[in-house]
Design goal:
It is a single chain. The protein is α/β, with parallel strands linked by helices. It has 2 domains: 2-278, 3-Layer(aba) Sandwich (Rossmann fold); 286-534, Rossmann fold (3-Layer(aba) Sandwich), CATH 3.40.50.880. The radius of gyration is 24 Å and the shape is globular. Helix 7 (188-199) links the parallel strand 7 (168-175) and strand 8. The termini are far apart. The strands form 5 sheets. Strands 13-10-14-15-23-22-21-18-19 form a 9-stranded mixed sheet, sandwiched between helices. The chain has a 7-stranded parallel sheet with strand order 5-2-6-1-7-8-9, with helices on both faces. It has a 3-stranded mixed sheet with strand order 16-17-20, with helices on one face. The structure holds glutamine. Glutamine is lined by residues 350-352, 378-379, 402, 460-463.
């Protein structure tokens, strides 16, 4: 087993996840079996209980694990489905050590933070690699070097490097500020980051220099001399137009050659054709398609963060690129948005709680009446059902009981098996989570898009379309084109093409399975319809 650890220096948000995913993709393109893991420093046992404005999107895996959005990057870059074994947090690691201690697993020993916590971390990495049959595990450590929270994970790196010096490399992705045109890239913060790593007992083998521009020779020498690494081990990582250019850029500086040499692995032919083709496609995309996303998890102080909907954004991009277009995405605050008429397509993505619900319903009605392509994801689908119930069925205050417990018409209601859990306040990891099959009704928009009868998509919800209202909705013209195999749960709702160019909602999250190399069919259909309107 070989290990590539990735840590971040200077500040967060410099693209550690994309860098880790890219390193994985590059090594995979060289014929190695790769898997990727994320270690998050928080005490939450998983990401499921966190508000997206705190920590970005909650990504969901096939097995129902609610995890960090970086797992989404790994899946998209590696083209693989990962499992819960690829994700751990401080909370989950402590939880298993404590459980083992209760079972006398440590045979009467004093169980200590060091070495037992790092040993558990290493065990878990090995286990994930074993499950996936990987030769190389990419392990991204969350947080930034110098934080108290991730010190035990660095300790795991130290212990592993000590026992298997030829099997592990440490990559530091660090930020080089660039203050103005008359200035230079500054390396001092990176030097401090390396000293901090040194004080944790580890030395980086490779430094990825993230900056708005490429690192020049002079700065390369400076980093090399002051950070104690070879010049060739400094990899330049300037801003790029598309994240899928990152692997190509890293390879310009021969990152895989350097990593493989350090791991004692013989380099094999590299084949980044897939990424090169994609990159060319992005560059040559002439058409533009304007997509509005109506959500509520954007605001952070004075700033707007798109992180909460990262998979939705990526899925829109994948579909657009495949159709020779570039999306122009705009954020619309569900509680306060202007004229939707200027958009070629509108998405109402997933969400929770009552805030913003009425605004979203208004947006959906506008799209339905003005025939603007509309795509509802999970909450977006549920609220489309509420909107149609109010307007076409005349059920005045129809709603989801999540937003209004006292509604006369609970057209969206809690899943039966969720009731007890809510009553007990048993919230973590208890929704309907992960991949479930659904059957498509032939001749519908969904069935044509997928071009198959059975699908398998990822879920994360507590509520569903209330079966009591299904017949009425169908009479009003709604087509439930996707249902659970037993027919009980409504998985996709749509309006026929004769009525609307594209009006479709899914109870699941199609964005979680979209990939730049195989865009999701429903997103492709939605963008197709939006491009028609753009014309
Ligand atoms: N809040 C809704 C539910 O729990 C929708 C969830 C979502 O959009 N992921 O059913």
């Amino acid at each position: 087993m070989k290990y590539v650890f990735v840590v971040g220096g200077v500040m967060s948000g410099v693209g550690k996840g994309v860098a880790s995913a890219s390193i994985g993709a590059i090594l995979q393109s060289r014929g190695f079996k790769v898997t990727a893991l994320k270690i998050d420093p928080y005490v939450n046992v998983d990401a499921g209980t966190m508000n997206p404005t705190e920590h970005g999107e909650v990504f969901v895996l096939d097995d129902g694990t609610e995890c960090d959005q970086d797992l989404g990057n790994y899946e998209r870059f590696l083209g693989k489905n990962l499992s819960g074994a690829n994700y751990m947090t401080t909370g989950s690691v402590y939880q298993s050590v404590i459980n083992k201690e209760r079972q006398l697993y440590y045979g009467g020993k004093c169980v200590e933070v060091v070495p037992h916590i790092p040993l558990e971390v290493i065990d878990r990495i090995n286990n994930a690699a074993k499950i996936s049959g990987a030769e190389i595990a990419i392990v991204e450590i969350g947080g930034t070097v110098g934080e108290y929270q991730n010190i035990l994970f660095l300790e795991a790196v130290r212990m592993l490097k000590l026992s298997q010096p030829k099997d592990a490399v440490l990559v530091l992705i660090s930020y080089l500020p660039f203050l103005s045109k008359d200035s230079e890239l500054k390396t001092k913060p990176t030097q401090y980051a390396v000293r901090t790593l040194n004080s944790a007992g580890v030395q980086p083998d490779i430094i990825i220099a993230r900056a708005s521009v490429a690192v020049d020779q002079k700065r390369r020498e400076k980093i090399s001399f002051n950070c104690n690494i070879q010049k060739d081990d400094v990899i330049s990582a300037p801003d790029v137009e598309s994240i899928y250019d990152v692997p190509i850029n890293f390879e310009k500086d021969n990152i895989s050659g350097r990593i493989l040499a350090k791991l004692g692995l013989r380099p094999r032919e590299s084949d980044l054709q897939k990424f090169k083709k994609l990159s060319a496609k992005v560059r040559s995309a002439k058409k533009r398609v304007k997509i509005g996303i109506v959500g509520k998890y954007f605001g952070s102080g004075d700033f707007v963060l798109a992180d909460s909907y990262i998979s939705v954004i990526e899925a829109v991009k994948h579909a657009s690129y495949s159709l020779g277009a570039k999306p122009v995405i705009e954020w619309l605050d569900a509680e306060n948005f202007g004229n939707l008429g200027k958009y070629d397509g509108v998405i109402v993505p997933g969400g929770f709680g009552s805030r913003g619900v009425e605004g979203k319903i208004r947006a959906i009605r506008y799209c339905r009446e003005k025939k603007i392509p509309f795509f509802g994801l999970c909450y977006g689908m549920q609220l489309a059902v509420a909107e149609i119930s109010r307007d076409l069925l005349g059920l005045k205050d129809a709603n989801t009981t999540e937003a209004d417990q006292k509604t006369t018409y609970p057209v969206i209601d809690i899943l039966p098996d969720q009731k007890a859990r809510l009553a007990e306040k048993n919230m973590g990891g208890t929704m309907r989570l992960g991949a479930y099959p659904a059957m498509l009704q032939q001749g519908t928009v969904a069935a044509q898009a997928y071009n198959r009868r059975e699908i398998n998509e990822r879920h994360r919800h507590r509520y569903e379309v209330n079966p009591e209202y299904v017949a009425g909705l169908e009479k009003a013209g709604v087509v439930f084109s996707g249902r659970s195999p037993d027919g009980r749960l409504m998985e996709i709702m749509e309006l026929p093409r004769s009525v609307h160019p594209f009006f479709l909602g899914t109870q699941f999250h199609p964005e979680l399975k979209s990939n730049p190399f195989s865009p999701h069919p429903l997103f492709v259909e939605f963008i197709k319809a939006s491009l028609k309107r753009a014309k």
